């Protein structure tokens, strides 16, 4: 029962956050011409990846990140990783598909 309550809270939180993303930002995030500027390599998510994400968010506001294939094996791992990066960088996970995620500094 407690697990269902936690899942319901997470679902509500995701819906609440997504409502605050302007349509223009969401459109830019989904645009395939937005270049990948950060890659997570075989070393995984390191402090340097987080520092780079914060720096680029400060300069650009919208950053596309890609994890190497095989690094995050399933959707649950990817979701956990991308949500953690968003939280640690004080940004919003705008869009993710496969191994690619887009973060926005609101």
What this model shows, in words?
With 106 residues, the protein is α+β, with helices and mostly antiparallel strands. It has one domain (22-104): Translation Initiation Factor IF3 (2-Layer Sandwich), CATH 3.30.110.60. The chain is 51% helix and 21% strand. The protein has 4 helices and 4 strands, in the order ααβαβαββ. It has helices at 2-19, 23-30, 47-60, 75-88; strands at residues 36-40, 62-67, 92-97, 100-104. Strands 1-2-4-3 form a 4-stranded mixed β-sheet, sandwiched between helices.
Provide keyphrases for this structure.
Translation Initiation Factor IF3, globular, alpha+beta, 4-stranded mixed beta sheet, 21% strand, disordered N terminus
Task: Explain the layout of strands and helices.
Blueprint: H1 2-19, H2 23-30, E1 36-40, H3 47-60, E2 62-67, H4 75-88, E3 92-97, E4 100-104
Parallel strand pairs: 1-2
Antiparallel strand pairs: 2-4, 3-4
CATH fold assignment = Translation Initiation Factor IF3
**Alpha carbon gyration radius:** 14 Å
Task: Please state the overall shape, judged from the principal axes of the Cα atoms.
Answer: globular
Largest beta sheet: strand ordering: 1-2-4-3
Beta-strand content estimate = 15-25%
* Poorly predicted tracts of residues: 1-6, 11-18
Reading the helices and strands in chain order gives HHEHEHEE
| Major pleated sheet | 4 strands, mixed
Q: What is the CATH homology-level superfamily?
A: YhbY-like
Mean pLDDT: 83
How far apart the termini lie comes to 34 Å
Per DSSP E runs of 2 or more residues, the count of β-strands stands at: 4
Range of helix content:
40-55%
